[in-house]
Amino acid sequence: MKKISLLLAFLGFIGLQVLFAQTREISGNVTSIDDGSTIPGASVVVKGTTIGTVTDMEGKFKLKVAPGAKALVITFVGMTSTEMSLTESNFYNIKMATERVAVSEVIVTALGIKRSEKSIGYSASTVNNDEITAAKSSSLITGLQGKVAGLTISSGGGTGTSQKVYIRGVSSFTGSNQPLYVINGVPMQNSFTGKDGSGNSVDFGNQANDINPDDVQSVTVLKGASATALYGSRAANGVIMITTKRGAQDGKISVVYSGSVTASEVLRTPQTQKNFGQGWPYWDPAENGSWGPKLDGRMHDWGAYSSTDYGPGVTPDGYNVMKKPFSYIENNMRDFYDRGMEYQNNISISGGDERNSFAMSYGNTYSDGVIPTKADLYKRNIFSFRGDHKAGKFSASFDVSYVRKDIKAVSSGQGNDGATLFQELAQMPVDIPLTQLKDYNSIYHNVDNFFTLYAQNPYFVIANNGNTYQDDRVYGKIELGYDVFAHTKLMGRLGGDFTNSRQRSFNAVAKITPDTWNYGAKSDEAGTYDEYNNYNGQIDASGLISGDYKLNEDFQLNVVAGINYNSRNSYISEAFLYGLAVPNWYNLSNGFDKPVTTSSTTKRILIGALGQFDLSYKEWAFGTLSVRNDWSSTLPKGKNSYFYAGVNGAILLTDAIPTLKEGNFLSYAKLRAAWGQTGNDAPVYRTYGNNIPTNIILGSGNVNMPIGGIAGITLSNLEGNLNLKPEITTDIEFGADMKFFGNRVGLDVAYYMKSTKDQIISSSVAPETRYTSFTRNVGQVDNKGVEVRLLLVPVKTKDFEWEMVTTFSQNRSNVVKLWDNEGVSINEYRFTGAYGVDFVAIVGQPLGVFKVPQAALSPDGKVIVNSAGRPTVDPINKKIVGSREADFVLGLNNRFTYKGLTLSAVFDYRQGGKFWSNTAELLAFDGNSPITVFNDRQPFLVPNSVRAVGNTFVENDIPILGTAMYSYYNHSTNTLMYENMVLDRTFLKLRELTLSYAIPKRFITNTPLKALEVSLVGRNLFMWTPKTNNFVDPEATNYGNDLLSDFGEFSAGPSSRFFGANVKITF
Amino acid sequence: MMISSCDLDINKDPNYPTSVEADKYFASGLTWTSSVIGGDLELLGGMWAQHYAQHAGSNQYTGIDSYNLPNNSTYITRAWGSLYSGALPDFQIAIQKAEAKGDWHYWMASKIMTAYDFHILVDAYGDVPFTEALDFYKYINPKFDNAKAVNAGIIAMLDEALAKKTEAAAIAPGMGDIDYFFQGDIDAWAKFAKSLKLKILMRDPAFATNKTAIQALITENDLLDQDCKTQDYIFVDKENNSNPLYENDRRKLNTQNNIRSSSTLSLFLFQNKDPRAAVFMDKAVTPDPVYGDYVGIPQGGYTLGAAYGNKTSRALLAATDPVYLMSLAEVEFLKAEANVLLSNTAAAKTNYDNAVTAAFERCNGAKDKDGKDIFPSSFDVNTFIGAGKAYEFNQTSATTMLESIWRQKWVAAVRCQAWEAFCDVNRTGYPKAGTVNSQDPAYVVGNLAPSINSVLSAGEFPRRIIYPKTSSDYNKNTPIALPIQTKLWWHK
């Protein structure tokens, strides 16, 4: 630190030397007309001379002018060149308008420092508010979908559910692969809230959704390590920098209201077969599948007490067996869902003068999703206030936002202690009219007499089993700045982010009355209630000193040095009650037993010291060096310090060699190169092993201690490690940014190679060592890829313009190595799996491949069948059937503007990759899937198969019988089925379609309105998937929002399409 | 800049205790062991010894019932993991802590439990890590010891434990309720250790090898005179505190139908009019001419259709069922077998009668889940073992005597020691392996029936649990997995 201070002082000294005398000193600032933001790096030249300067980081300039000077010419790439006549005043407020069809040229880089885009040697993409909010998604992140090359955003659920964001691929096995979200220079917490996994999962969203998109001025995506080194350990996966709107300093108050109403419908429900009805394999009124006879349309008994030799066969008094045709019901599952409605209201007030400005806003989102009733409900309120103050050398600003969310959601996945919705829906035979089950209290459809004993009435489920979530979050910052001396500024920033949340999950009591239809066969549900209270807090403090020095005519140096302190705390308390004494009363005191309670707390601290040096030559060559050292509490004592750095450079070819611009072909060309590293620390509490309460997991359920009043403590299966090192990601990037034909064509390409080493995981060890896993640094994962952004303006006339932006990204990951177990090279690491389908990392493969059980083969490679003619499983080896990784991702944005009318469409196309679908599996299991009508369910022989006779094999002559067809399509009795459930992830989605009209100013000149805009919006309107996936949205998942979620979906809910209208009024 | 590493020294997880005494680890080890014996092994043993079969209207255990378990199946990996990285490390720590403090009661009981767990492992998997097991920092790839050598090691371990009996018994107060098998009774622990020795010695098919040692144990007769089972206060009808198989199968799965009574068992009980059927299974919806009230499903008959399966009897399980590490009946049967082989026929008969009596007495006063009586509170077992009765000890020859013992031992193990029954089927060849399933007119009641959906060749039955993937992937010394039907060295 001392050294850095000395350096700064020295540089400051040089800075002072470059002043030289002239006649009159004028000053001023350059801002954008569009949003009031300052413009650094703009060139300010006295008209008709070569005398001039460039604006500093805050868009300010000082210039000595000769007495005869008449005007200033201000130019900046992407802005319309502006002239300002000189008067007697020594201060000039200069406003510049954005040149249409230009990339925003001001980039907010690390630490909130603004830089001219041209000076940056790495890939950084900025998206502005109008693009983000065009389709009126309540989520800021959704608004970025398809718009940035190299940024892959997946969101499978309804409003308020989480988004998965990958920048340049995935490398971390167990840590986060999500970018760091930074709002106005302060890192923001971005945890997934809810419960991921296969059982009773629920998604309450990730915390980056707690931003009101209307408050956002722009979002900049920093992709490479060179760009992110300054944010330290948490930025290894890239940074999403969010800059919010601030009050304009024009002495006026501006009020903006924006409101939208959108309806939603379920986008994709699984397609089912239409030929066979209820039964297993014969007609059976209690079955949950469609393995029965051919549908013949005849009137038929259905439901409880239907005449069959099954069950008691006695119809209780007052119960007439229901009748219906034995026919396929069109749109059965689709009709179960209803139309969702979503309302968004936002009001913002902003204003200010030279010294003070403010912006405040209130945003409200109310969304009732597609599940009938208000079982899925999302309410969000965001209040925010931002203020700025300037007094001479002193400046201060603060931001504060308060977020309150109230969410209701149904569980997905498999039901533990109570049924979940989507698995029940998938298990309804194709001839059972779903909507007729609505009256779940009636004698026909209640728990006692629901037609099938293998599933629960879906209407009962949505009315009785569910989850609620409520949180209160405050985040913001205070920032103070002081100009210590010329060109040198001190800045202190204190950020905080605090969330208190309360999750409740409940499953109703469902006891079956003796001597009813389902009695004795179906398990009673005892009823459960869970309270999960969580506090999550973060303090982030930085002290920075920055200088901005013109070394001489040609060289300019910017320096930033500082320290950062980050501490994160959490506190969790949870109480779970199994067995409710009084049904439908959800309270911890309502148990036969006391609730099982747990609590835990975590704390981690990260301290960093950082520096960044930017040197520019003649405004066309730029170089940046950034360095950082971190000290982390999660690494072993004495080994917790680590250093990393990044360098990058850019050359503005068109400025270096101005002749290139001749001929109106090339208008702008920049080449850039960057190298950088980012270190990352360990998850909290992984240096030591623990002694933990004994909770033993069985196939289903647990044996937990204390038991019978006896407490037990067991050695944790996970051993800690006192030799952990930080994980290091290194990346190299080359890129070019070019514009042609007067900005009618723009091409930005980047190529990167990224390598992550020594990542910290729980590595498996053989249980006979006494642990099952050991925390250690392992392996190397490489990612390389290409990102292209192509802008075309095929048509541009006075009134009509067609703009087309295509983003293309391709990432290839490779697991280079895992680890070595003293002589055993470990080549495989399992992330997760279900029913024998494994999601693993394998050396030499892309990160995240699917392995499925394979059939046992005879020596000549034929499938060995069992006595029922079905393939048998190879007990040892599984086969790889693809990876999670897409071949490429394409975003296609088209915008047509005619006068005030704008039509825009955003397509998102992902080619390739695989995912596992439990929905598809369940549908095959219960005979609803279209694949189950192969050969009209007539007997067939497994192709290319043999059966064993003693030690030899003979040609298989055992057909799969019609009556055993269900066993063929059941993965647990037929190995080959696993492969069918790993589906192609390809999709094309129309993410956004909007038509907006800005009412011409002349219509509102005599009203208080300054602007009025109306629009029709659609989101996720259409989705196309390959034929093999006619089941689910490939983005659907209930495994959270990181790598594990790429495994697929365990009966996750459907996604929705939204369409509606929006109005935006500016006063 | 100076950042002292002290400021950041906050990475010891504050949510867990730093120092714990032997008793907590000991209790934990008992629970891990019980969860394995009373959970997965009871299920595997139940299916493979043909007490139970998978229902035809549900799917949960089809892999087990067709002998189709890949090496990553949790039925294969869990027992291995729960014992090696659950129970055994806890006993290991308990032994270290107890030794440091002179808590010889915990020391002795933990040693015996360590021996017991290794015995289970070697019985299930064959050659297993023993000498290099449980020492992560020294052996990340523990070698697999020959199964026979492991048995010798277990015997030595039991002798070591027995040598501390005096010191252990002298400690007051004793282990009390924390020892939820014997409530601190050191004598009982010693008897258990000796009974376990007897059992292991009798694993060797060459009786002569261990004859002297067996004779010594029989002569000393300091063997279990009670069941080694979880005390009544342990498993209650409460979530996550119940009998493991019940918790898994009945409380947590959405259908309670999966485990049905196997025809092999039901036909045997029906043929002998054995009233214990009422304790082992539910009554069928309607009585059946072949089976009576208690109807079994043919082994592996899960593809016979739900309608068929629904007519069969569900296996009866209760949340409060204790887990048996060893039973009095088992020990008496072992003694009977030893006495037959030592040519003490009279003693063998006494042992046999005691064993069958103990097996019946276990059912006395049994109730169903609604509290209804399903078995009398006292039952005259002479109606079965008396002269000319169904289960009379057949003293015609050593073979018939052994057959009587093994048959009864197989029935006695229902709903308590199914894993042991499976081991005995392999060890003794009784019940005999039949060649046709129970639907075939040629089926002989009392024989094992080939599973209808068996993936094995005709005449083959499961013999072992194959090496789990969790071991073979990470331990370079894990032998190539031998198939499920491969005999262990002590199998017939």
Structure report:
- With 1067 residues, chain A is mainly β.
- Chain A is built from eleven helices and 59 strands.
- In chain A, the strands form 14 sheets. Chain A has a 22-stranded antiparallel β-barrel. Chain A has a five-stranded mixed beta sheet with strand order 10-17-18-13-14. In chain A, strands 3-2-5-6 form a four-stranded antiparallel beta sheet, with no helix packed on it.
- The radius of gyration of chain B is 23 Å and the shape is globular.
- Classes of the chains: A mainly beta (1067), B mainly alpha (492).
- At the A-B interface, strand 30, strand 36, strand 37 and strand 49 of A face helix 1, helix 3, strand 2, helix 9 and helix 12 of B.
What's the main sheet of chain A like? 22 strands, antiparallel, barrel
Distance between the termini of chain B: 75 Å
Radius of gyration of chain B: 23 Å
Oligomer: heterodimer
State the helical fraction of chain A: under 10%
Termini Cα gap of chain A: 50 Å
* Biggest interface, CB < 8 A: A-B, 115 and 111 residues
Q: What low-confidence regions of chain A span 5 or more consecutive residues with pLDDT below 50?
A: 1-22, 100-104
The number of helical segments of chain A is 11
Strand content of chain B: under 5%
Looking at the structure, what is the overall shape of chain B?
A: globular
Number of strands of chain B: 6
Count of individual beta strands of chain A: 59
* Approximate strand percentage of chain A: over 45%
Mean pLDDT of chain A: 89
Q: Structural class, from secondary structure content of chain A?
A: mainly beta
